[in-house]
Design brief:
The protein has 308 residues and is mostly helical. Helices cover 75% and strands 1% of the residues. It contains 14 helices and two strands, in the order H-E-E-H-H-H-H-H-H-H-H-H-H-H-H-H. Strands 1-2 form a two-stranded antiparallel sheet. Helix 3 packs parallel to helix 7. The longest helix has 39 residues, at 4-42. The radius of gyration is 25 Å and the shape is globular. 25% of the residues are buried.
């Protein structure tokens, strides 16, 4: 009797947990796992997405076609460019503003809200807004440049500058999110550590370099991870603003996938692009967690074990 009661309690507990998890598991399988499996399946077929499941098996032909596609190879380069710009410009800018707004300055709550507000806007609203601001004819940006005697710029119509223009929109949209992450991370650092460093004679820069920055490491690594994954999967802003133009000069992998899948009805080829995107994201995530975030994950698991 004593042994059966704990077993029955564990069984009832397991059943209760399963019932609560079941709706989420069904949604996850239907909206995440099943589409991924379907993309893998369709990537080895020539299929227009209609008339039932694909039957024209082509093996790895779609993937070999990718390796010879100049547009897709350009997508890889443009994605890498966005990643580099995000790590070199966007994240340091967010960190600098976060450190500034962590000081006791007048109106800092207002400025935090002001800088975070763009992130709360949808990608569609942001894209339409900057299409008006950066309009080559009567956009606000060119009007301001005209005050200083600078000729109007074709922000989104010039192949040589369109990616920089897209990056400006990305930075305006997302830097507030990373800023809030850094502010939260900075507030989690005990004040006693910085005060002790100042008592020992450390200046403001040395306190930041040797105390604040190392302790912000976990937050920075999370921010880098989210920024890289976001750049790899960028779609909404580019599709609404440029549609990948001019002459494919602003296309990303997601835009190219959409073009082939929903415009040209080459779903098999579009599925191959999605599979490549999935593997790039997966390999990066596994590598990053294994070699970059290893100490953070080990620390979190240690805390959980101690709490148990």
């Amino acid at each position: 009797m004593k042994t059966t009661r704990p077993r029955s309690r564990r069984l009832r507990g397991f059943t209760t947990i399963l019932l609560f998890l079941l709706p989420a598991l069904v949604l996850f399988f239907g909206l995440v796992v099943a589409p991924i499996l379907l993309a893998f399946y369709a990537s080895v077929f020539k299929w227009n997405g209609m008339r039932g499941l694909p039957t024209d098996f082509v093996g790895l032909a779609n993937f070999t076609r990718l390796l010879a596609d100049e547009v897709f190879l350009g997508d890889l380069w443009r994605g890498l460019l966005l990643i580099i710009l995000s790590l070199v410009v966007q994240l340091p800018l967010s960190l600098g503003i976060a450190m500034l707004l962590n000081q006791r300055i007048r109106g800092r709550a207002f400025f935090r809200l002001l800088f975070f507000a763009p992130y709360m806007l949808s990608e569609a609203i942001t894209a339409v807004l900057f299409m008006m601001i950066l309009s080559p004819t009567d956009g606000l940006a060119n009007v301001v440049l005209g005050w200083f005697g600078i000729d109007p710029l074709d922000w989104f119509a010039d192949p040589s500058s369109v990616m920089m223009s897209v990056f400006i929109v990305m930075t305006w949209k997302y830097f507030g999110f990373h800023m809030i992450l850094y502010i939260a991370g900075r507030q989690g650092i005990p004040r006693e550590l910085t005060e002790a460093a100042q008592i020992d004679g450390a200046t403001g820069w040395k306190v930041f370099r040797y105390v604040t920055l190392p302790l912000l490491g976990p937050t920075i690594r999370i921010s880098v991870f989210l920024s890289v994954i976001g750049a790899i999967q960028l779609f909404d802003l580019v599709w609404i603003i440029t549609g990948g133009g001019p002459s494919h000069s602003s296309e990303t992998m997601a835009v190219t996938m959409f073009q082939f899948g929903f415009k040209r009805f080459q779903v098999g080829y579009a599925s191959a692009i999605s599979v490549v995107m999935f593997f790039i994201s997966l390999v990066f995530a596994l590598f990053y967690q294994r070699y970059v975030m290893r100490r953070d994950l080990q620390g979190a698991s240690t805390v959980l074990r101690e709490q148990r």
